[in-house]
Amino acid sequence: MEIGLATAVVTGLAPEVGDLVLARVEEVGQHTRIERRDGRRAHLFPGNEVVVAYGNRYAPDQFEAVVPEDLGPCHLVAAGGVAARVVAAHGRMAEATSLLPVGLLVGPDGRRINLRSSAVSPPETGWLLARPVTVAVLGASMNSGKTTAAASLVRGLRAAGIGVGAAKVTGTGAGGDVWLLQDSGADPVYDFTCAGVPSTYRVGAGEVRRIFTDLADRLAGDGCTAIVIEVADGVYQEETSELVQDDVFGDRVDALLFAASDALGAFAGNDWLQSRGMAPLALCGLLSASPLATREAEVATGRQVWGLERLTDPVAASALYEDLLAGRRVRGADHAADPDPAVELELARPRRLTAAV
Known about the structure:
By secondary structure, the protein is α/β, with parallel strands linked by helices. The protein is built from 10 helices and 16 strands. It folds into 2 domains: 8-118, no CATH class; 125-347, 3-Layer(aba) Sandwich (Rossmann fold).
């Protein structure tokens, strides 16, 4: 994304989520490298000056960190270039790489430069009559196989000749997941940084809803026939939980896939979703690599586990697409004689997710 050219740095201001800051590396710790704009991870050394963005971090297997109230010492809490102050860390983590902010970057107008200034804008409302088939991938936790499953489904849809885009709507900014989705054939691919935030942790339910709708709308406006949405972390994570239970999510998503690393996680996640009227269409994730875990999960939940072979299969992906599209046609059949444009527009929106999906 394009960020305005900085003309100065300023001190004495309280940082906000998304503000760009020039900082000096004081001591190299857990993160020994930082992701550059071109994707290369550059090695860090004490005395290096870097431009990073303030953002909160939620990572149970790494750090929990928050945006500080001042420009005092802080930490590099994600290799994607996120600055915050660590409040908790996993026991296996080394001390976080320490940063000393020099000042916030400001533009020619004297205003601080924030990621929000480069956020993509949603399209005009005309796209609603051709809303793409939408599949969301959720998970039991971090590192449960969500991105791999999402990318595999993208590959299957692309191989079937279906124009597919993708978005990661929550998480902490880094290029790896976006590039995997791109390399799998999704075009275009957006994530929450494209909506103007470096991380969705602690931004609030309303902001996460905006990010989801803006990115989904943007993909629809780009002409995608199908879109794959990844929702980061697990369903117990606050922003993920709130988004998934929001009516706007249920109104715009046609089917869910749930990723887990073991059968117990799959059972708990399936139960959590089903109790909220959002039963997943199938299970996926790391457990699919184990025939035993797959069998246990299928017996416990009564749902199929879709492995990478199934997700990448163009015949299966095409059938999934057609089934979801046909579900909309059936839903609209009873209203076929109604010429009211407002009714037609409403029929373009998906039903609330239910166990019948």
